[in-house]
Write a structure and sequence with these properties.
450 residues, 18 helices, disordered N terminus, globular
């Protein structure tokens, strides 16, 4: 565990370790699974353009604020907010930012690990040749059969939770730091291999035209709000992960430059994932706007009919699993850091919270039998709705308000002392005005108010 002579906080070995960790937290199923299919649903290039604007206007300012809070507080999100509230003569209830983040991370882990378990299982299916010469009906039936087998779902979910817990239990340096230094380069390599395969075997021109040809006539108000929401959620904002990772950030690292690099890497990976997926979809005459089934139903058909499909199908679902793994460790870390601060051994804190996540995953798996409500919503949908549509937007909104309106401007300026006045003022204005407005619009849309 690295320590400075005059301080006692744990920190990453370098700025690039933080960049890899934060990028790993941001890059997950949202980039490789969700971004391609929502791009397909909302018209391609125009949606991508709006998404990039939302990253710049909402995502980067809030991410800078969350990293700033973490590095200033130098502890877990809950104790950080308690400490900073006192320092800024604010009410103690601002600690709700940290509490909400810890709870949201644990709630997301419960259903995230289930979906990540699907990807793990599909690695095995690809290796076994289950996709060979498969047609649309067979692909749909393969997925349906898998979802109806609780034993297999539990096994996949359990394996993924254990993999996540092992990394977190090993600690910041030996666990998180080592994991991201290995996982992120592996993710980049796998993605580039798949991009090359798509270039060779897919309809690459059709894929590029779909993603980058701008036609605003296809862009609806709903599409803009979806782009705004995804820009916010893909950077892992409001769940405490970026705050606790920021608390491990070296003192001499630039917050602004580091966050900018993370946002670029996260966005590039999402775009490259789309460029790797859509040419394969179009080359096989498949539907781009397939929704969530794009990854688990449509792509197996493509891999099943292409040269080297077994190899590249395996690599693709391995890529998805690695991305999910790098994100899941950030969901568990804020709560573990909090329990550590209370005196609980890291391995025990990890076991307790991972166990709760595992139990939440069981509720998701069995919810189609005994947890649905009158409207047909299951535990999976409820967890996703509460965490993604309520807790995360509120967490991000409160972070923006606290740093923009409650925290002393001089304190924020000191934390960003290496940032030029023009860029600091632009960031501060965005955080006080534009970011909150954007988050409120997403929040109201998620509640069907607009």
């Amino acid at each position: 565990m690295s320590k400075r002579n005059k301080t006692s906080y744990t920190h990453w070995s370098s700025r690039w370790t933080f960049i890899m960790a934060a990028t790993g937290s941001a890059v997950g199923l949202g980039n490789i699974w969700k971004f391609p299919y929502i791009t397909g649903e909302y018209g391609g290039g125009a949606f991508v353009l709006v998404y990039l604007a939302c990253i710049a206007i909402v995502g980067i300012p809030v991410m800078m604020a969350e990293v700033l809070l973490g590095r200033t507080g130098r502890t877990d999100p809950i104790h950080t907010m308690i400490s900073l509230s006192r320092q800024n003569d604010a009410k103690a209830w601002w600690a709700i930012i940290g509490v909400s983040g810890v709870l949201a991370g644990l709630l997301i882990l419960s259903f995230y690990s289930v979906v990540a378990g699907w990807a793990l299982d599909y690695v095995v299916k690809a290796i076994n040749g289950s996709f060979s010469n498969i047609d649309a009906g067979q692909a749909g039936q393969l997925f349906a059969d898998f979802l109806s087998d609780p034993t297999q779902l539990i096994i996949s979910h359990t394996v993924f939770i254990i993999l996540t817990a092992i990394v977190v239990a090993l600690g910041v340096t030996a666990g998180l730091g080592t994991a991201v230094r290995l996982l992120m380069p592996l993710l980049f390599i796998l993605l580039l291999i798949l991009l090359g395969y798509s270039l060779a075997e897919g309809d690459f021109n059709a894929g590029l035209n779909f993603m980058f040809s701008v036609d605003f006539s296809k862009l609806s108000g709903e599409a803009v709000l979806v782009a705004l929401g995804h820009a916010f959620f893909t950077l892992s904002l409001g769940m405490g992960a970026i705050m606790v990772y920021g608390s491990y950030m070296p003192e001499n690292a630039s917050v602004a430059k580091t966050v900018f690099i993370v946002a670029i890497l996260d966005t590039v990976i999402a775009l490259v994932a789309g460029m790797a997926i859509f040419p394969l979809v179009f080359a096989n005459g498949l539907e781009a706007a397939k929704g969530p089934g794009l990854m688990f139903v449509t792509l197996p058909i493509a891999f099943g009919h292409m040269p080297g499909g077994i190899i590249f199908g395996t690599l693709f679902f391995l890529l998805v699993s690695v991305a999910a793994w790098s994100s899941s460790i950030s969901l568990l870390e804020p709560g573990v850091a909090w329990l550590e601060k209370l005196g609980v051994k890291r391995w025990l804190a990890t076991a307790l919270l991972a166990g709760l996540g595992w139990l939440g995953g069981l509720a998701c798996i069995y919810s189609n039998n005994w947890l649905d409500d009158k409207e047909g919503r299951y535990a999976f949908e409820w967890m996703d709705h509460i965490a993604s549509n309520i807790m995360l937007p509120l967490g991000g909104l409160l972070i923006a308000i606290f740093v923009g309106w409650i925290m002393r401007r001089s304190a924020a300026r000191r934390a960003l002392s290496d940032t030029a006045n023009f860029w600091f003022n632009l960031w501060y204005a965005s955080l006080r005005v534009f970011s909150p407005i954007g988050i409120i619009l997403v929040f109201l849309h998620s509640l069907d108010v607009i």
